[in-house]
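forwarding from the other thread:

> can someone predict this with protoporphyrin IX containing FE?

sure thing
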Amino acid sequence: MPSDQRPQLIWDLPLRLWHWALVICLAGSWITAEAGFEWTQTHFYFGYTALALVLFRLTWGVFGTLHSRYASFVVSPMRVFRYLKNIGSNPTSAGHNPLGGWASALIVGLIGLQASLGLFISDDIFYAGPYNSVVSDHTADALAGWHHRIFTLIQIALVMHLAAVGWHTWGLKERLIQAMFHGKKNLHESAGNQEISEHRATIALVLMVLATLAVTALVYFAPAPVFDDFY
Ligand code: HEM
Ligand code: HEM
């Protein structure tokens, strides 16, 4: 590490655990969607968990530590434009860079939308999301179309996410991937002190429990399914 840089704790533990849990959920949702109808129920469980993780992230974006808060990294389009003009020569950002901030919010939004759409659709054979009976067959088919299309958008966003992370890690030597494990980034001393001093783990646990309860209630109190269409 150059002598004018020092490691600073940037990503709190809850955010890091959340990130890798989301990776597992998304991979699980994808694999179980492709694996055949026997896996549909498991697909639902991965989807519900993804929804709870998204709810958690939105609240953590308000109550989390400095670099996890949306107000600290969703910046004006002007700043994104300035960042893009100097792309390749910007100093390492403490948290997300201006473009990465918007990309992060976009990925979370797409996954939240994807999981919410799933609640209303069915595979037209055996399984239906818990709110499938509140929409007409026609609407459910249209929403299923969006469940497919939005997944394509998620895939595109993730390819770009991995390309950007790879470029910063190996091209610009910023060690971003390592930072999503241990939380620390090497920052130039001109960045000043950007370090967080706590993880707020108890608040995170409460928010995660509330998010899980909210999704559980959403599923548990869903209207009874209508089976007429299946016979
Ligand atoms: C299903 C796959 C993935 C999803 C859905 C995903 C999603 C996300 C999201 C939403 C963020 C922003 C965190 C925030 O909300 O503040 C993020 C950040 C990050 N992700 Fe991923 N990610 C995935 C896979 C990966 C993989 C495989 C790696 C490593 C090889 C990775 C490395 C990172 C890093 C380093 C950051 C922080 C970027 C920064 O410093 O601005 N991600 N990811
Ligand atoms: C982030 C979460 C989710 C992701 C990434 C995801 C992804 C997918 C994908 C890629 C497919 C299409 C498989 C194919 O056409 O080969 C699919 C189908 C399906 N998903 Fe999801 N899903 C998620 C959440 C949910 C949830 C929460 C539910 C319901 C509770 C759900 C219900 C369904 C159903 C019923 C199908 C079959 C639709 C059909 O046959 O047209 N999904 N999902």
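The two ends are 67 Å apart (CA to CA). thats all i got for now
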